[in-house]
């Protein structure tokens, strides 16, 4: 069977989420079956494994609806795409598409790095469900990354094709030192973009009311957005890293008081898994996907409520916080209600602050994200099954991995075992590599 993987979303220079997802998946899938990568720029090869490749037009080209005419000349049996928008008119091969989330139906602001005409089409595309249905139903199988997104796909009847849930995974950022100590500093870490639905404003306002805490913003950020956030709450202690290598990110995350995220919607939540692997507490908005991933190992607050976020953060320092009830409880995906148990973290928590009387907005040395290798065994196997299904070698029943079945239910957050109970260890062990560093 000749398999082609659409690698045209791999970025030149620095990975974003889809780029890292693609590179990790290709690396793992190639261990199971020979494959050929589809690229649109030779420079993408720097962030991809050393595998056979073919050059076709880019996914943002006006030729995209008919890209299958180029691909079919390569005589593939199956093509896998990490996105749902790959053109399919004129194809003669099996096609597996990936739908990560439905965020932009509620938050229609497109990514800023897209060409103007693509941004316009993006907005039009998300005004109705029928374009999504048309694309997905032209495939042979569809993959998504969470039960939450799968539920939305079914609710809106977006496809008649077999739907497979293959959860994302997180690369191992290191092993925490044991025995573990409660951090002495107030370092809060945010990893993610600055799109409006990410709720970074909520985090900034929350930190403004916490003089003993500082917010480390790890991702690359433009000057205009940096200035806007600084003006939003001048009293907030903000540290802009403007990108970080994996080692730098791991060092900061391991010594943090908590990873914080205020998103109103997500397709998954890789940083949550990364933080829990390191034993760092997780304070996030109470949305279904975070309940699916964080279970009772996270502390929740209502989206958009900075005061509630601040209370959730300060609650981590309260006696007995390891068994405190959620700040804003709601049913978990399996119908149960969990009690968040913040995870332990390292004592190597360093602080940085400007001299008295000077602005407390800090700049970290500019860093570029380094490409990484290592992909999830679990995810690679799941995608291999989906590819086989598209080629007619598997049944149409969806194969799903339910994260709630291995929910983290940890004991004392500062116990010797950083991964808590057996289900917690099993869940972490399954997640051994995947996308990030926007």
TrEMBL record:
It comes from the Bacteria. Pfam families: Glyco_transf_4, Glycos_transf_1. Keywords: Glycosyltransferase, Transferase. InterPro entries: Glyco_trans_1 (IPR001296), Glyco_trans_4-like_N (IPR028098). Residues 360-369 have a biased composition (Basic and acidic residues). Residues 188-314 form the Glycosyl transferase family domain. Residues 315-438 are annotated as: Disordered. Residues 333-357, 389-408 have a biased composition (Low complexity). Residues 16-171 form the Glycosyltransferase subfamily 4-like N-terminal domain. This is D-inositol 3-phosphate glycosyltransferase. It comes from Agromyces marinus.
């Amino acid at each position: 069977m000749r398999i082609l993987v659409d690698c045209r979303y791999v970025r030149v220079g620095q990975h974003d989420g889809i780029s890292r997802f693609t590179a990790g998946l290709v690396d793992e899938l190639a261990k199971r079956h020979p494959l050929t990568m589809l690229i649109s720029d030779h420079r993408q090869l720097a962030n991809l494994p050393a595998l056979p490749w073919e050059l076709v037009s880019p996914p943002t080209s006006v030729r995209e609806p008919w890209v299958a005419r180029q691909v079919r000349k390569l005589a593939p049996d199956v093509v896998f795409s990490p996105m749902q928008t790959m053109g399919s008119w004129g194809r003669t091969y099996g096609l597996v598409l990936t739908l990560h989330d439905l965020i932009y139906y509620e938050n229609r602001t497109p990514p800023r790095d897209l060409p103007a005409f693509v941004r316009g089409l993006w907005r039009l595309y998300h005004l109705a469900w029928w374009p999504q249905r048309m694309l997905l139903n032209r495939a042979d199988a569809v993959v998504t990354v969470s039960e939450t997104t799968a539920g939305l796909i079914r609710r809106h009847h977006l496809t008649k094709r077999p739907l497979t849930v293959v959860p994302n995974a997180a690369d191992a950022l290191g092993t925490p030192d044991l025995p573990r100590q409660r951090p002495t500093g107030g370092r809060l870490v945010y990893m993610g973009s600055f799109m409006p639905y990410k709720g970074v404003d909520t985090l900034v306002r929350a930190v403004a009311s916490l003089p003993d805490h500082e917010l480390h913003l790890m991702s690359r950020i433009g000057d205009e957005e940096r200035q806007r956030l600084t003006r939003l709450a001048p009293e907030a202690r903000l540290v802009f890293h403007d990108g970080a290598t994996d080692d730098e990110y791991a060092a900061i995350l391991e010594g943090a008081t908590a990873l914080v995220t205020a998103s109103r919607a997500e397709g998954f939540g890789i940083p949550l898994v990364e933080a829990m692997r390191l034993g760092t507490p997780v304070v996030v908005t109470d949305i279904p996907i975070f309940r699916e991933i964080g279970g009772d190992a996270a502390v929740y607050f209502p989206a958009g409520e900075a005061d509630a976020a601040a209370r959730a953060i300060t609650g981590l320092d309260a006696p007995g916080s390891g068994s405190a009830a959620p700040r804003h409880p709601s049913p978990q995906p399996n119908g149960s209600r969990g009690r968040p148990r913040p995870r332990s973290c390292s004592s190597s928590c360093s602080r940085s602050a400007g001299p008295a009387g000077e602005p407390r907005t800090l700049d970290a040395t500019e860093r570029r994200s380094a490409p990484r290798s290592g992909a999830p065994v679990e995810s690679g196997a799941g995608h291999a099954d989906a590819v086989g299904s598209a080629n007619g070698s598997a049944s149409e029943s969806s194969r799903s991995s339910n994260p709630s079945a291995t929910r983290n239910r940890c004991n004392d957050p500062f116990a010797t075992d950083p991964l808590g109970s057996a289900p917690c260890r099993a869940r972490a062990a399954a997640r051994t590599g995947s996308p990030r560093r926007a």
